[in-house]
Amino acid sequence: MDEQTSVTHHQAAAAAARPSLGVTLCGVPFRNPTVLASGILGLSQEVFDRLANLGIGAITTKSCSLQPRVGWHNPTIVNWGHGLINAVGLSNPGVEVMVEEIRTTKAHLSQHGVPIIASIFANTIYDFGTLTRYISEAEPDLIEVNISCPNLDTQHEEMFSSNAFVSAQVTRMVKRYANCPVIIKLSPNVENIGNIAREVVNAGADAICAINSLGPGIVLDIDTARPILANRTGGVSGPAIRPIAVRCVYDISRAVSGTKAQIIGTGGITDARDAIEMILVGATCVGIGSAVYHHGYDVFADVCMGIEDYMQRHGYSNIEEFRGLALS
């Protein structure tokens, strides 16, 4: 065997020894389990291209509505030391603009093998159906249905996700018009998240994203004795909510056991250990949001490298081998 052949065989053996980070969510292949959470970086083609080049698994767009929405005025996001509190107000340019932007962005992301998840929200069950028809024209790989923002304006007396029956009705409406798998995003601010997850899966949801931000909460400026956020209250995210998110994913995994439904675990993930914890309680993918503010775009690659190191140390060849181990 000559030297060149020896080197080639060595490289092949090394590649074969590396564990696979690839996962499949609702039939859509992801090169790794990391997902940009909705609402973190808007819908910038330049930013998304950079994330794709850095190795992200999938990207979720900013949530969009039927009509443009201005949202709240600044300050809308505050780092309170253990995470973030935000009241952005779901600002977006409306579905007509988003459809064109998603089309353009998908064309670029597909070159990298990075799926795009279109996030939507609406004011009524009927509007969810109309919005789904429009957003489906952009042909996203998946649709995430945000029924769980804790910080809507006062015309909404409660979140859709507060009620299992209503959550299921929204799911049925979206499934009627969607041309791709549907993910329902749930709130931790409920008595029994497992029951709500079971109902939306029975109604046709292909996957669950859990959790949305906790709250709303208030952070004060103690010198002025006034809330720092312009909207006074905001959704709480970041490391402080991670144990709650893990418990919610644990409950959901048990509630939908025996079904084909899958889970995107999100809430306070900042490193590989956090991501592995989510996978151990049943998550197929992990959503990363607030950590981007603290650690930058490299957080996705760092998480992947940490997961790979964990798998090599434990002798796992793929993620499925340890997914859900903590449920037994």
Characteristics:
TIM Barrel, 4-stranded antiparallel sheet, 10 helices, 37% helix, 17% strand
Briefly, what is this?
The chain is α/β, with parallel strands linked by helices.
Describe what you observe in this structure.
This protein has 328 residues and is an alpha/beta fold. The chain has a single domain (24-327), classed as Aldolase class I (TIM Barrel, Alpha-Beta Barrel). 37% of the residues lie in helices and 17% in strands. The chain contains 10 helices and 16 strands. An 8-stranded parallel barrel has the order 3-4-7-8-9-10-15-16, surrounded by 7 helices. A hairpin with a 2-residue loop joins strand 1 (23-25) and strand 2. Helix 2 runs parallel beside helix 3 (95-109). The longest helix is centred in the C-terminal third of the chain and has 16 residues, at 299-314.
